[in-house]
Amino acid sequence: MEHSSNHLLSVILFTPLAGALLLLFIPRESQVLHRLVGNLFGVLGFLVSLPLMVHFPAGSGDYAFRETADWIPSIGAKYSLGADGISMLLVMLTTLLGMIAITSSWSAIQQRTKEYYILLLLLQTGMLGVFLSLDFFLFYVFWEVMLVPMYFLIGVWGSERRLYAAIKFFLYTLAGSVIMLLAILALYFNYAKTLPQGAIGTFDIPTLLAAAQQFPDGLKIWLFWGFFFAFAIKVPMFPFHTWLPDAHTEAPTAGSVILAGVLLKMGTYGFLRFSLPLLPADPALRAKIVHIVIALSLISIIYGAVVCLMQKDMKRLIAYSSVSHLGFCTLGIFALTPQGLAGSVLQQVNHGISTGALFLIVGVLYERRHTRLISEFGGLATPMPNFAAIYLIISLSSLGMPLLNGFIGEFTILQGTFVVSKAWAAWATLGIVLGAAYLLWLYQRTMFGPITHDVNKSLPDLNLREYAVLLPLVALAFWIGIYPKPFFAYIEKPVQRIVQQVNPGFYQANRQMPPAAPVAAPALEVK
Questions:
Q1: I need a labelling partner for 412 at 20 to 30 A (CA). Which of 185, 195, 259, 371 fits?
Q2: For 233-242, b where at least 16 C-beta lie within 10 A, e where not — what string?
Q3: Cβ–Cβ < 8 Å for 128, 96
Q4: pLDDT confidence of residue 199
C-alpha cells in the first residue's frame, strides 16, 4: 500500500536512537540541556508515530508499511519491518508512555542526567523494534537491546535495593531469552531442511511460522514451550513473577511506568504473535497445553490480587496488581476466541494507561515525601484535592468501572472466555472483586481519614508538569471506556486471522463469517 512515507516505521524506530546519539555530544555538566534534548526527542518520538495511526488501513489483517532490506545475506537475516493492527496499537502505546515517562523525570533525576536520558531513549528504540520486527534475528537483537538499558536504569537510579532488583531482572529475562534463542534456531534449521541443497534459510517470521504448520506435533510442542518460557517470564505469569515486584519497587518512576506499561506487553505480544501459531494440530495435545496456560493465568489473577491486599508499600502493591491484570490478558489469549483475543489486546493497552498512571501517582507522592509506605499517608484529599480526584479516576479505571477503559477490556475477555468455559470466567471474576478491594482500600487509607503526619498538611497539589503527564492518560481512559470502536476496528482483522489459524472450527461452530482476507495473504509492500 502506497503512502507518503515509504520508511515511516524506520523513522519511528530510530528517532529515539537519534536523540540518544545527540546526547553523547552534549557536555556532562549541561544538565538542563540534557533534560531539554531528552524531552524534545520524547515528544518527537510520539509525533512521528501519529501518521502510523492516521494512515493505517484499519480494515486489513495484513502487515502494512512493509520495509525489507538485506542485512546478513549469508544466514538469510534481513532488516524487515511491518505493522498490523495489534502491533500498531502497541507502538502507539510505547511512544505515548515513552514521552510521558521522560517528561515525568524532569525534577526526579538529579544525578547522571546525560546517561539517564540516553538509556531511556535507547530503551524506547529496543521496545519499538520488538513490536515492528518481521525477522526473527532482528527481533531477538531488539529483545536483548531492551534488556541492558532497563538493567542500568534500575541499578543506577533505583532505590535502596536497586542492585539486587536489577540483577534479578537481568538474570530472569536473560534465562528466558536464551531458551527463546534455542527455539528460534530450531525453527530456522528445521525449515532449512525443507529447502534444496545449498539454499540459504530465512529468519522471516511469517515464512517460518507458516512452515511450522507442517512440522510434526512433537517438534511444535518443544517450540511452543521454548517461546512460552521467555514470554511467561516477561509477562510475568505465576510462578515466573518473582522478579517483578522487586524491579518495580526499586526502579525510578519512569522505569516503573515503562516496565509496567510496555515491557510486560512484550510477553503477551509474543504469545499472540509466536506461541499461538506453534500450538500442536492434535486437538487433545492442544487442549492439554491450553488448559495448563489457562490454569496459570487464573492462578496469576487471584494470587496477584490476594498478595496486593497484604502489601505495605504502594509501589509493591501496584506491581503485584500487574501480575493479576496481565493474567486476564493471557486468559483472553488462550481462550482462542475472537472476543477473548480482541479483549486481551485492548486490555494490554488499558493496563499500560491505568497502571502507568498509578506509578506516576506514586512518583508524585514520593517526590514530596520520599517514602512509599501506605502508613505514612492519610487524609491527602484535603491538601491535594486535584491529585485525589485524578487518583480516584485512575483507580476506578484500573478496577474496571463502567465508562472507563478497564471495563471494556475485562468484559470482552470474560465474554470470550465464557463461550469456552463458564468455570474459567467465574474464577476470573473473583479477580475483579479482589481488584476493587485492594485498589479502593489503598485509596481510602491514603486519601481519606485524618492527617496523621503533620508534614502531610502542607503538601503541594499537582504542578503544571504533573497535570501534563496525568491528564492525557485520564482522557484516554474515558475515550476507550466510552467509545472503544476505533480501537477494536484496528485489531478485528488480525484477531480473525489468528482465530482462523489456531481455532479453525470456531467460526463454523458459531456460524460466524470468516475474515474476508485469506489466512496466508501476502504482506503489504511499500516501495
A1: 259
A2: bbbbbbebbe
A3: no
A4: 81
Query: Considering the domain boundaries, does residue 357 fall inside one?
Result: yes
Q: What does the block give as the cell for 263?
A: 515491557
CB atoms within 10 A of CB 310: 10
Residue 68, beta-bridge partner list: 80
The vertex-39 CA angle with 38 and 40, nearest 5°, equals 90
Burial of 98 by CB count in 10 Å (0-12 exposed, 13-18 middle, 19+ buried)? buried
The answer to whether position 464 is within a domain reads: yes
Could you tell me the CA-to-CA distances from 188 to 40, 130, 519 in Å, in that order?
Answer: 41, 19, 22
Size of the chain, expressed as the number of residues it contains: 527
- The Cα 170–Cα 167 span in angstroms is 5
User: Residue by residue, what is the 3-state secondary structure of 154-214?
Assistant: HHHHCCCCHHHHHHHHHHHHHHHHHHHHHHHHHHHHHHHCCCCCCCCCCCEHHHHHHHHCC
pLDDT tens profile 46-82: 999 999 988 888 777 788 888 999 898 888 889 999 9
Contact 373, 313 (CB under 8 A): yes
Whether 477 and 355 have beta carbons less than 8 Å apart is answered as no
Q: Is residue 51 part of a domain?
A: no
Q: Given the C-alpha cell 489457562, which residue does it identify?
A: 294
If you write DSSP's letter for every residue of 254-323 in order, what string do you get?
HHHHHIIIIIHHHHHHHIIIIIGGGS-SSHHHHHHHHHHHHHHHHHHHHHHHHHHTT-SBHHHHHHHHHH
Strand partners of residue 78 = 70
- Report pLDDT for 113: 83
Distances (CA, A) of 165 to 58, 168, 171, 242, 247: 41, 5, 10, 10, 5
**How many other C-beta atoms lie within 10 A of the C-beta of residue 376?**
17
pLDDT digits (tens, 9 = 90+) for 208-219: 988 888 888 889
Asked if residue 75 is part of any domain, the answer here is: no
The grid coordinates listed for 296 are 496459570
By residue range, what is the domain housing residue 416? Answer: 296-518
pLDDT, tens only, 249-300:
888 888 889 988 899 999 999 999 999 998 888 888 888 999 999 999 999 9
Q: Long-range contacts: 23-27, Cβ < 8 Å, 24+?
A: 23/114, 23/117, 23/118, 23/121, 24/118, 26/114
